[in-house]
Amino acid sequence: VQLVESGGGLVQPGGSLKLSCATSGFTFDDFGMAWIRQAPGKGLEYISSINSGGDRTYYADSVKGRFTISRDNAKNALYLQMNSLKVEDTAVYFCARAWGTYDYWGQGTQVTVS
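RE: above sequence
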């Protein structure tokens, strides 16, 4: 199982970024997926998740209305569109496979809002 995030970078407050998570080694459309982040000096924070079919999405209050999770099961890919970014969104963003718990994680991609 492999999950590889990309799309992070430096952006000004109010800007946008789209993160991608390329997956392999498992049947992608059998699993829910999630985005989780870790800000400097802080613990892990759940951001968003999506069911296997892509028709149910969930968000933390901190990002609701600004972030959109999506998936392309034909491409085995997960996405996170982030709009209206704030300084407090600065973190390493991880994608994870959801199977009771988050059993596989990517290496993370850094998002810096400054």
